[in-house]
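Quality-control log, excerpt.
Job 1 of 2 completed; input and output follow.
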Amino acid sequence: MKNPLYKRLQAGFSEWLRILNFEKSSQRDMPKMLDEFLNYLEIQNCNSINEITESHIQNYLNHLSERPSKTRAGGLSQNYIRKYLQVVKKFSRYLAESNQESFEVNIKLKGKTSNIKSILTQKEITKLYEATKEDKLGLRDRAMLALYYGCGLRKNEGLGMNVEDVLLEKELIYVLKGKGYKERFVPLAGQNKTDIENYLNYSRPHLSSNKKEQALLLNINGKRLKTVFERIQKLKLEARINKPIGSHTLRHSIATHLLQSGMKLEHIQRFLGHSSLESTQIYTHISNEV
């Protein structure tokens, strides 16, 4: 890229991503993808922002669909082309927010906008709860659902939780081993609190064979539970839900339901423990699709 204006704007875009605390991978990859777009404009003899039209953008996307992929046979996938379009949109947003001449991007690609494969409806969540039993494993199942759906924890956050991390009096859960080892507090109230409390009082004591074991979720041998996948699959079969489900499905589902209920994106970001609002914004697309 030789155009000094484009070089300056690309550098400014990179700095803007850093200041807004976008994910590290976005700060690394988006400027490279923008470089490809600006190079294309330069080849098309489009050398200033006010010359960019919707035709330029559409032709660029067509170019991407035809150019060979560097990682597999054939052209770029639709998901990958969508990423390039998102970069162009963010570049347009950067220009507008920094009071520079910008351009409009009204192009929409067909198909879903996320890689999240399934979201459970609230009725399906209710079916999962109804599939739990009243025995010690059933009470543990409800505690598991409280952690992964009610509190929106990641898989390893729930498995790594200790009894001391459950602050019943304060109605909070302390998440120490979050992604990137970031700590946070998650609200624990209502039925979620009741399910955790019932597990602690009436199930865990019957699973524990060693009083020194600090893990919150125990297996039948009284050791820290290593996986929740099998239990979730068992509940899925009992509930007759015909969707792929894992612990992250429950996390994605609560985030979507909170957004649908009117909770602000910033509050959902803190609830989920996202370091960047960019990660949370995906649910605005999902909530329109389910």
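Job 2 of 2 completed; input and output follow.
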Amino acid sequence: MVYAPGTLETDQKKQNMALQQQASAIATATTDIATNTASISANTANILVLTPGHLFGLTLSTAGSSATFSVAAGGAADSAGSSLMSLASAISKTTSAWAVGTGNGGLDTGSIANSTWYHVFLIKRTDTGVVDVLVSTSASSPTMPTSYTLKRRIGAMKTNGSAQWTKFIQLGDEFLWDTIVNDANAQNPGTSGTLYTLTVPTGVQVSAQLSILWFNVSASNYLFVSSPDITAPSVTTATDSTLYSVDSTHPGVTGAYVRTNTSAQVRATSSGSNGSMYLNTIGWIDRRGRDV
């Protein structure tokens, strides 16, 4: 093959120029990627700073009298507020020992127990990015599977007498029992106040949703149902009470939200010793770490 004078040299120069342009473009793209990565990291950090208690979706559900429950798709910041976790699609777990993936067990340790509260956690391993669900009797320190380091409590459920889940309905932070539960029946709390345990989660504080009935057996009487967080009240008049009953045929009836302690208790105090109180638990509000 014969080249015209200067042709080969010209072609090489053109190739060199093209390579230089490509190298410059690659360098620019690399810089842009690094800048975008830094921006993404900064934005993620800003999101976590702005919403450390971030949680959406992740609704819990069970048919009741079943060993299986489900968690809807959603996402949350981990309990330390250091990372975001995302559950791309709904997952179902059973009461068996934990194993990764939908349809497998969710229990962190031991065997499932009868009539016991369990807390549900979204968990993540940072090396692979896998997100899963775990249940534990601990509200703050579940036994984490190997390599899983991030967690966020997203709710609580109770087993029945056969170690199956009791049916409830969740909407956001509100959990309603499918069947109302009577937790205090014809009780006289007395003037010094008495703590009553409700059928709401233990290990965390929640706002119990109650239906309260108050009968006076022989004389007019006042009742106040309060959180154990406040000083035990002295109940004497309508200005420091929840309900009033003039006699046994005229009960006081009301609905109320009352904050519990971590033992699922509220306090009831009356103005006399002749009352008869009924506490019926409809459900509870669980903020699930939004405020911590």
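Post-run check on job 2. The chain has three domains: 1-50, 55-170, 174-285.
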